[in-house]
Write a structure and sequence with these properties.
alpha+beta, 5-stranded mixed beta sheet, two-stranded antiparallel sheet, 288 residues
Amino acid sequence: MYSAEIIQFGGEPCILAAGLDLTERKRTETQAALLREELAHLGRVTMLDALTASLAHEINQPLTAVATNADAAVRLLTAQPPRWRELAEALTDIRRDSQRAGDVVRRMRILLRKHASEHEPIDLTGTVADVIRLADGHAGLRRIGLDVDLSAAGPMVMGDRTQIQQVVLNLLLNAFDAVRDRPPAGRQVRLDISQRDGTAVIDVSDCGPGLPEEAMALLFEPFYTTKQEGLGLGLSICRAIVGAHGGTIEARRNTGPGMTFSVALPILTTRESGSAGAAGTPRLQKQE
């Protein structure tokens, strides 16, 4: 980086120039970004490991239905006369269930893939909705009620779709853990999206026991955890991801039981969304 200006020295105009070598700082920033991406990928792998049972259930259900309908289709086809209308219905069900299983695998693959961070305009509501589809089965197996309100008018934000989904999924899994020891009727988690002061805010609330003051102070620090089996990296990775998106993440105790975690991300203006969206479209299509 260089700068120069004309000054008067002894009554004569002179050029005062200064240079600063930013090579080392740029190298450090690049290394920090690579480390953040490595940690983010590790966090996604760890989360999906926790979801193994529910994901297997989500895939097995439609595959079992496909096998059942395939057997029925064979019987309908060989009947005398063939029962064409019922056969068409069975084939329609096979197609629907195959798509359902494929969607689960697609969402898993997106979360697991290792890639350089790509910031582009994304629909936050649709991005979060895909996470809900992954987490809903997990909540059902643990008899947790998941209340979702995505009625906010689809705010657009600039960011990496996979990393934002990682943050939301991490907060949901933490909330599920927070309520797991409550009676089934009291296992409630809520997620909603709202818009406040030019930001899109994702709130994840639970009705668990909450956290003491000393835990609140250390909550986002690396390797700090209140779980016996935890590594203490999930929330620190979330903070790094949200910070890299120009946003904030905070935790607060509810007036009633439990905690609320809030992620605030800058909303794109119409002009920003339009100019950046044209360049971002190919990557969005490729990602899907």
